[in-house]
TrEMBL record:
It comes from Bacillus mesophilus. The lineage of its organism: Bacteria, Bacillati, Bacillota, Bacilli, Bacillales. This is Uncharacterized protein. The chain crosses the membrane at residues 12-29, 41-57, 77-94, 106-130, 136-157. It comes from the Bacteria. Keywords: Membrane, Transmembrane, Transmembrane helix. The keyword Membrane applies.
Length: 168
């Protein structure tokens, strides 16, 4: 086991502060979604973060560790809770700005840039510890793919809801 840190310090505070700010923003912004859709988007952000991190941060890839050591710990769960609002806001602003068609490509590029900045800040605060030659640039196609899937999932969810409403 690799231990990077064994104290409650900046990486834990980063997770707490970002989570509190992001969830507060969700409650303060005008509501665009039903409670069910909001919860689904938050859980989707949580699950995508968990799945993607555990796909490439464990053997056979083992490209990075999350938080204080290479073993799973409580703050790793809180890291994924922190990811929830990012999926929510991706879709919130997608709807707010009525992004459609080719604009979606530009939108995903902007969000990928935003995600890369946040990951970079996360490395500075000790959230991510790269190994085996992994670099920040390697995350770009991952973010593009995951954000594309999130939008695709939302469009399907929205279309199903519209079909259900038309039948009633």
């Amino acid at each position: 086991m690799i231990i990077y840190d064994n104290q409650f310090n900046e990486n834990e505070w980063f997770i707490i502060i970002v989570s509190v700010v992001m969830y507060t923003l969700i409650f303060l912004l005008p509501k665009k979604f039903s409670l069910g859709t909001s919860i689904t988007l938050l859980l989707l952000g949580f699950y995508i973060g968990l799945l993607s991190d555990h796909s490439i941060s464990i053997p056979p890839f083992d490209f990075y560790d999350v938080n204080d050591n290479s073993k799973y710990e409580v703050f790793d769960i809180l890291t994924y809770v922190m990811y929830g609002p990012f999926g929510y806001f991706l879709i919130y602003f997608y709807e707010h700005f009525k992004i459609r068609g080719y604009k979606t490509i530009f939108y995903i590029i902007v969000w990928t840039f935003f995600a890369i900045i946040l990951e970079y800040v996360g490395t500075k605060f000790g959230i991510f510890h790269y190994k085996q030659g992994y670099r920040l640039a390697f995350s770009v196609p991952i973010y593009v793919g995951l954000q594309s899937l999130t939008i695709f999932y939302y469009v399907i969810l929205k279309n199903k809801a519209n079909q259900t409403n038309q039948k009633e």
